[in-house]
Batch of 2 targets.
Target 1
Amino acid sequence: MISTRAQKNFDQMLTLGIKASLGGSTSTISEVEPVTNLKDIKDTHAVMITVASFLFRLSLIIYFSPDEETRRRFVGVDGDDSAVADDQTFFDAIRECCNVCCGTLNRELARVFPHVAMSTPNIIERECCYHLETLKGGHLQHFRATTDTGSKFYVTLCVRDYATVDFEWTMAQETESSGELELF
Amino acid sequence: MDNTTAVLLIAALSIAAYLGWSVVQLKGQLASMVNAEEANAEQQRLLIQLDAQDQEIQALRDECEQNHSALKVGAIDLHQESDAGEIGLLERSRHASATALGDSNDLAGEILALLELAKTFERWHADMNELVIHNREMHEKNDEFASIVKHMIIVTLNASIEAARAGQSGRGFAVVADEMRTLASRAESLSDGYRHGLHQNDLITTTTFQDLQAGGKMIISSLTRLNLINNKIKDDLTS
């Protein structure tokens, strides 16, 4: 069982991760809000990563489409069309973004749980996420992140518990400070 | 009165005065002689008391010497016992340290062997990549199968139309075309189900292997920390 407080903490940690990673080099995340319907998500692919602990397994999924705008946002190479068009470069950039997002979350979890570790990310097709119930998550939540330029990204958090999960967590001062710095 | 008489008178007076002074002196000495007797008596009493105290002191001294000798013997025995105890304790401590050091070395060996688990986790990760590639090939085959089934449905539809055009003579053919269309529809629905199954399989495979990979990292990290602690214990034992 995952307590309401733990679910809220997981969500807030993920929000930190989203703000630290999905803005890209040209924008910042202005809003992160929960989404109830997975059907709202129209992207074709997703990148998935896992944080393992003795008590739970946390899966993080960031949805994306390999379109021109997304490629430019994540590859971040202005004018270099070949790099933007290259699938390997783009997927590597997406994986790196996922790593940063999950790394932020993992760092916060490590302040509470002494033994946590994260996997490397993998690209999956979006249709795979229709079967998220298969993972038997005690906490399944989708989010929509909106940038200040209007771009939208969808993220799913799925936590499967193997024992009672309840913990106290407060946002670290340095985390808040680094979040503020990112706004500049 | 002539001079001689005066001198004699003065001499006689002087002699008388001297005799008076001598009498007073003799009286004083006589009184002193009485105090000296008392003092002698007191001295005798004190001497006797002193002798008694001397004897008492001698007795105490003798007793002290006896006690001292006894204590000396006791101290020697105690020292010998203490030395033996300390040596025994030191020996046991040395033995325990040697055993602990040996155990610590054994533990270090086990930890290093367990750290080789990282290779197993890498192997699992490689296996996962193979599984993902295999799943992708199955997706491609299923997509091709779905494409064939769609084509079959169109063909069976065309066959039904042609059979209808043929009229009475095409009736038998229409039955076959309908049956073929039914089979194609069933194949299409099977293909869709298979596609969903493959996606579900992708999700389960990815989640499971990511869990294995992250769990592996968690174990390796714990073992590394354990190794550091064990090295510190070894340092403490050898220093």
Target 2
Amino acid sequence: MFVHNPFAALPASIPPIAKQTYVAVMFLLVVCGTLFDLAHKGSASYFFRHRRAVSFGARRRVSTGEATALAVETLVVSVLGAGEFCGMWRRITHILTMYGFVLYVLTTAIMVFAYPTAAAPGPAVVAELWYLGALLVCIGGYWFWFLQRVDVAAEGQSRFRLVRADLFVVSLLASATFALIWAGLQGAGSDVWANVFFGLYLLASTALFASVPWSKFAHMFYKPAAAFQRRIEQANGFRGNLPAPADRPATFGSARRQPQNY
Amino acid sequence: MPTFVYMTSCDGCGYCVDICPSDIMHIDTTYRRAYNVEPNMCWECYSCVKACPQQAIDCRGYADFAPLGHSVRVLREEEKATVSWRIKFRDGREKNFVSPIRTTPWGSIKGPSEYAPPSAAAMSSQELAHEPEGLKVDVLPTLARSRLKKGLV
Amino acid sequence: MSRKTVFVDADILVVGGGMGGCGATYESRYWGRDLKIVCVEKANIERSGAVAQGLYAINCYMGMHWNENQPEDHVRYARNDLMGLVREDLGYDIARHVDATVHKFEEWGLPIMRDPKTGRYQREGKWQIMIHGESYKPIVAEAARKAASEVYNRIMVTHLLMDSRHPNRVAGAVGFNVRNGDFHVFRAKAVIVAAGGASHIFKPRAAGEGMGRTWYAPWSSASAYALPILAGAKMTQMENRIVLTRFKDGYGPVGAYFLHLKTYTQNAYGQDYEAFWRDSIEKLVGDYVNHHPVPTCLRNHALLEEVKAGRGPIRMVTKEAFKDPHKETVGWENFLGMTVGQAVVWASQNIDPKETNPELTTSEPYVMGSHATCSGAWASGPEDYAPAEYQWGYNRMMTVEGLFGAGDTIGGTAHKFSSGSFTEGRIAAKAAVKYVMERSKDRPEISEAEYTQLRKVIYQPLENYRIGRNEIVGGTVSPSYLLPLHGLQRLEKIMDEYVGGISSHYTTNEPLLTRGLELLAMLKEDLALLGASDLHQLQRAWELQHRVLASECVTQHTLFRQETRWPGYYYRADHPHLDDKDWHCFTLSRYDSQTGRWDMEKAPVYHIID
């Protein structure tokens, strides 16, 4: 069932150029939204000011080779491995959602640009990966949404409370969920309902990419930069004014338990 | 000196919310990260600072009397049973301190049920658990009622 | 609003998971292997209470096995410091057990410093030993968790429940979950209250963000007093508020400085001022001025008089001592392990005690029961030697049956500090276990009508806010509800101006106290109109309720004692002298929550030895 390219199966009245323009506009919205966010909030200025302060407080110079190695480490550990999350289950749901999202977006772009027509819908594997991506987003995302969100898990807020911090994950989940429903209905032949969910899918996806200046979307770019900067600060001795780790053996175990909260 | 949370380091794990004795570390609704909602009820106990796995929490002295530019940061390493402090003065001077925090492994305390149950004689005596051995004297001290003297009035 | 009600049955309910509560939980399990021991705490026992940031010294340790001190020596010390008025039976009881508590702490993993020459615990002073206590509370909490059947964190207990069939007998407690708002009803055969004393009842010196930098933890919201007061328990020495001489702004501790670093105080002109005031102090308190060591309140008094005479600021002379690197380390670590904020203040103002003699100040008043002060509930003493007037049943049981106390909650037991509070928790626990076992056939019954009514009262501030909010556009100003912070600031101003706070140099008199009671009465009425926007504010609302009731008690006691017993803590300007003829006694109060009346009386003081 979930093997056909849903973009190719859209009504012929929607020309490929329309679909491609939409995807390109979404991509631009992300770029422009992020740049706007940086400029409007001055967060880039803050970041470079901080780097200058660090260079004054640094104890040693970090060589280019060292910096490169740290950048690679950041990419592998913090980005690909979701290392910025200290909780194991948060890390897992983030990895599921992140890789799902990447898969979902990349295969969308491939299908829309390379295989946009019913005549040549492309190899089944591309579509299958699209479904897989959306599914991973839903698994990781709903798991996070209902069970792990810290305002629910730590603060006792209702699972159904919506605040601005939820804008990104809700629009992402809506996009992936409506996408799956739309494609499923399309495959089952019920055109009217398929179109309804296609409309919802478009709304959710547009909201996802257009809300970058107001949502946490852009943090997926900021966090790796911050992680790299932190590694530089460890290496050059500034360490964010933190003391150095103690020179003692780690033989006492740890009492750290998951927050029990209430 | 109330606490604040670094935006780029906090991943919204909730450890600080869990530990704060004053119930003032909560989750912001725009970023889903932690922040101090009531700095005038912050004792600077540093519980949240020590609990944060990302060292994302720091303190700034109370605005009423602490000029800016200082820093007092801590690294509490449970596995090493140490706490390390780095104090930076406003004029840049620095002082560093390291202390032990525990001499036994975490979780190693013998619970009271693991001791032999107390006898009926112990129950009716004035001795508390692990006495008199725990006092390292032979006998729990006591007083004769006759020694008590009524004070004035 | 649909709220879940959670019923918890316990044999022993420990209210408060601080030092006293953890001691009570541990000991309850030792003696009551099969009992259900429940500990309930409004925060998280891992770091709750006054020891959240750690301690650098244990200030109550005899060292009996090294012949350093005997329990009666400690009683004399506490009695001397409190100008003669302590419960010597209770104090002796703590002093004779506390060594075992401290040895257990060491066994559990608390690093206690050792004197390299003698191998004994490193003494800071006669009663104090030095520790690396950053994790003092987590260690003690681990012991409590291994003992309790259940530990309930983030549940604020607001009221005790009484037995519906026997008057004057406790049956449990009610409270609410600070996170999810559930209503909790605890049914227990015995209740041990080991909650916090009272900070934030007098206006603090720092009124902005700095409000948080109180000497005693800002989360000590007087539940130790309000819970027993509402249950009808007699309270004692509530007038005995404490004022502390500490480092300016940060209120960092001075004990290690005086005792271990051997620093001393000077006025702004480099003069030793204490001797100058000796004669005038003698006119106030008579022979007490000759006691050694000089009582804490009298040292405060000298500093206060010196400042009033215009020769402040008073400074701690540290420049010589800090030249010694070991002493410098102790001087800083003393703060880092106990009051980090002081290190922050000095770092922010570039104060290095090697180069500057830092300022001292006297704090705003606090009411608590475990330091150089002993406000709290009137409790029954140890069976083996307490005089008849001090004994009516089980050790540490208050005048309400089945209601026990430890730590700040219990009055008359000064200078017990952390180890003594934990020890008192242990004492109360053993007694509570005996009480439960001896009354096993006669369990108390709670009344559904009582807890249903309390449930409405507890959540009322949320309703007040929700409904009243419709009247205004926004902001904090409403004509129909009061935010908890508003109520707190009003309380602190009333107490400051009328009951002897900093703005009057701790001085009050009958007309002021009477007026203060009038204003407190109006504040009490306004408490029915508190508005809480969320559960965190609801916690603040109930902390305020407890603080106001305790403050009323403090004011009644201050009015009742017609003398100035502790100059330097507070002054009755209309009775400026110590009066051993009429007032060498305890003050007792009992509150009737139905009528709002306070009944005051005196109780005799018994001395162990001259």
